[in-house]
Amino acid sequence: MNAELPxxxxxxxxxxxxxxxxxxxxxxxxxxxGYVDGVNSAEEGLSEQREAGDFSDTASLLTSFTHNYxxxxxxTLFWNNMxxxxxxxxxxxxxxxxxxxxGSYENxxxxxxxxxxxxxxxxxxxxxxxEDELHNVPVDDxxxxxxxxxxxxxxxxxxxHSYYHDYGPARGDFIDNFFEVxxxxxxxxxxxxxxx
Length: 196
Hints:
This protein is mainly alpha-helical. The chain folds into two domains: 21-80, Helix Hairpins, CATH 1.10.287.990; 92-195, Iron/manganese superoxide dismutase, C-terminal domain (minor pseudopilin epsh fold). It has seven helices and three strands; from the N terminus they run ααααβββααα. It has helices at residues 21-52, 58-80, 92-102, 105-118, 164-167, 171-178, 184-195; strands spanning 121-128, 133-140, 151-157. The longest helix has 32 residues, at 21-52.
């Protein structure tokens, strides 16, 4: 595997009303890039130890791979879950499934917001094919609390580097403004792919 930092699907300043250009630059070019480098470094270390037959660093390398790869995957989804033309509410089959599983869109959003306020990492809307259900999941770091077999449909990064420069400790304001840029069409495409 050779992980690569994806390009943003919009300009750094495209989400300015919700996320500043400066935060987008730092978050993408430094934080996400760091996870990509971490994946590649862990993979290189694992390959080298396999060749040498020396597995003394296995635990730390596997932990590094898991942490960094999960961060890479979730950040890639996060960038694509947003758009300067975003906002509004889910529609189509995703909206129908949200209403079926949460009782209403409003119920889902309130629960998602609570997940985002409580997490030390990410709030995710995930689809679990085995149960044919959507669930909100607060995930600490990138991988603690993740649900096996679940596919993230919507991801919100609530690490402090995502919002503190723009909002200070007002995480709730950041969460509210995130909904102004959610690209529901992308979320719907992901849902269609993982639920089909």
